[in-house]
Design goal:
three-stranded antiparallel β-sheet, eight-stranded antiparallel β-sheet, 19 strands, about 30% helix, metal ion binding, about 25% strand
């Protein structure tokens, strides 16, 4: 298999995504300078500093043609696809619409996560962290209509033994700590084509072994994925790589476990999970990937845990069920809330903070009634064993007719 990573594009134009410099350097370099001199230098430096701002992505791509991700040729019985003229023609037709939407979303994702990595610091509240990411996505997308482009699902910021499905609700007081392991799961969509891509963010290097194991497992899943490939074969390969790792943490050695009831999945239009799952452990699922499908290849690993998760805690994530029967909704407040959900999100996942942004107030009873009626599905936090640590890495891949494209790949991971 031949693979190549796309070179960073327009790198010189993304200075707006670098962390703002703090006010030191020249003043601290001369500790003997008088207090008055220090003040003058600080004032001069501050007044001359250019503020870094996030701007719409179309400023960088006025022609609305976005760069490809990592291109990987198919292998084995898929070799003919690389050279087959019919496949190349079909790919060109699709490329004009669907693939370009994914590439736009991926470019927004790369810039939003770079911005986040530069700004996130210990001591921030989780709401501050979420706002940094989501405000950047909205600004890059540059549309007031959330169903046209923007945030594809609530930003996951799950900490430590929480593996997935946590984002802060209004009033959340949790503060990010130096020793926390945070899964950052960001969704970006363009015309309902969702880029689902995640990384694990830490400050303390003692967790590096865990992060490396899970990243290697995800890259294995990407390598194995392809048209007509069976899910069971992908899961077995991922597990073999993940569980070949051991991690030393605080003087103890732990095996890395696959969190077996968390999976990758295929992505549909306006649907983050579209029916197929990509397991991360050995299994008997002989379902095959198909040409033209889009998959989120994601793996989760844990140390000092069970190797599985359970739903627990206050819910933040929700999504309207596709094709749900709305006739059973009787409560007027629930009907009003459902109209807001339909108008603002459709079947895109949302969270309570997003309802707050629409102007909804005191909606929790109505929201719970929609859940009970089966119109909306709730997704509570997914928790590993207390005291464990979990990590996640994820990329979105496009199974184009002639090649496999890791559309969300960047120079960071």
């Amino acid at each position: 298999m031949n693979s190549s990573t796309v070179e960073p594009t327009l790198e010189e134009k993304v200075e707006n995504l670098k962390v703002e410099n703090t006010e030191e350097n020249e003043v601290e370099a001369n500790p003997e300078a008088s207090t008055e001199e220090k003040k003058k230098k600080k004032k001069k430096k501050k007044s001359g500093k250019k503020k870094k701002t996030v701007v719409p992505i179309t400023n960088f791509y006025p022609d609305e043609k976005y760069p490809e991700g990592q291109i990987i040729e198919y292998v084995d019985n898929n070799n003919y696809r690389t050279t087959d003229e019919e496949k190349r023609y079909l790919n060109r037709r699709l490329e004009e619409t669907k693939w370009n939407d994914f590439r736009k979303g991926a470019e927004i994702h790369r810039r939003a996560r770079r911005n986040a990595k530069n700004k996130i610091q210990p001591g921030m509240t989780m709401i501050e962290v979420a706002n940094i990411i989501e405000d950047a996505v909205r600004t890059f997308a540059n549309t007031p209509e959330t169903k046209v482009a923007g945030v594809g699902f609530p930003t996951g910021l799950s900490l430590n033994d929480c593996a997935a499905h946590y984002t802060p609700n209004a009033g959340d007081k949790i503060v990010l700590g130096y020793d926390d392991v945070m899964k950052v799961d960001i969704g970006v969509h363009v015309n309902g084509h969702i880029v689902d891509c995640a990384f694990t963010h830490t400050f303390n290097p003692k967790y590096d072994g865990l992060l490396e194991a899970v990243k290697a497992a995800t890259n294995t899943g990407i390598k194995e994925a392809g048209i007509d490939v069976r899910m069971c074969d992908i899961g077995e390969a991922i597990q073999e790589v993940m569980e070949s790792h051991e991690v030393e943490l605080d003087g103890k050695v732990y095996p890395v476990k696959c969190i077996k009831n968390l999976n990758g999945h295929n992505i549909g239009d306006f649907h983050i999970h579209d029916g197929k799952t990509v397991p991360i452990v050995k299994n008997d699922d002989e379902t095959k990937m198909e040409e033209g499908e889009v998959f989120a290849i994601e793996t989760f690993g844990s140390i000092n845990g069970w190797g599985f998760v359970l739903p627990e805690g206050e819910c933040s994530h929700y999504a309207k069920n596709s094709g749900a029967d709305e006739s059973g909704v009787r409560l007027n407040s629930a009907k009003e809330l459902l109209k807001t959900i339909n108008d603002s999100f459709g079947t895109l996942p949302f969270c309570r903070r997003y309802l707050d942004r629409t102007g909804q107030d005191k909606y929790l009873f109505a929201l719970n009634s929609l859940v009970r009626a089966g119109v909306v599905q709730d997704y509570p936090p997914l928790m590993e064993k207390k005291g464990s640590y979990t990590a996640q890495w994820e990329h979105t891949i496009l199974l184009r007719p002639d090649v496999k494209e890791v559309v969300s790949r960047g120079d960071d991971y």
